[in-house]
C-alpha cells in the first residue's frame, strides 16, 4: 500500500461530509479481469449492525454499477485536492467509452482482490452487506422526486469497512 498505513476505521481522520460531498471519492470494483471506477459525492460513513460501515448509492445505468454488483467488495478512495481534475475526469467519462483508469494516470493496486489507487490519502476496503433500490414511495420529502425525473433510482449499498488505510 505504498506509504499508506493500515489503521482501525475508528481512527479515520477528516469530516466525512466534507470528504464525500465536497472533496468526492472514487468507488472502484472488479468484474472478472476488468476494473472500473466512478467519482461519487453521495454516501456516508458510520456504524451499521455493530460494524464500521460505508454507505454508497449508484444509479444502475452507471458502468461501475455492474462492477459493484459482480463483486463482494469494492474500495472507496479519497484524495488530496491536487487530484480534483482527475476526479472530475473520472466522474464525467464512462469506462464503456475509453480506458479512463489508464488515461487518469492513477496507479491501480489491490488489497487481496479489491482494487484501489495508491495515490489516495485514504482507502477503505468494503465488503457488501446490504443492497436495495430506492423506493419512491418511501421518499418523505416530495422534493426528492425531482432528483429522479427518469425514474432511475439509485441502488443503495451498505458495506462493512474491512480494511482502512491512511497516509
Your description of this structure?
- The chain is α+β, with helices and mostly antiparallel strands and 167 residues long.
- It has a single domain, classed as Pnp Oxidase, Chain A, CATH 2.30.110.10.
- The protein has helices at residues 16-23, 63-70, 84-92, 100-104, and strands at residues 5-7, 25-31, 34-40, 43-48, 51-58, 73-78, 108-111, 114-117, 122-133, 155-166.
- Strands 1, 2, 3, 4, 5, 6, 9 and 10 form an eight-stranded antiparallel β-sheet that branches. A two-stranded antiparallel ribbon has the order 7-8.
- The radius of gyration is 15 Å and the shape is globular.
Secondary structure topology:
Blueprint: E1 5-7, H1 16-23, E2 25-31, E3 34-40, E4 43-48, E5 51-58, H2 63-70, E6 73-78, H3 84-92, H4 100-104, E7 108-111, E8 114-117, E9 122-133, E10 155-166
Antiparallel strand pairs: 1-10, 2-3, 2-6, 4-5, 5-10, 6-9, 7-8, 9-10
Top keywords for this entry?
single chain, 167 residues, 18% helix, 41% strand
Computed over alpha carbons, the radius of gyration is 15 Å
By CATH, the superfamily comes out as Electron Transport, Fmn-binding Protein, Chain A
Give the tally of structural domains.
1
Low-confidence sequence ranges: none
Principal-axis shape equals globular
Proportion in helices:
10-25%
Number of discrete helical segments: 4
How many angstroms separate the termini?
10 Å
Task: Decide which structural class fits the backbone.
Answer: alpha+beta
Mean pLDDT: 96
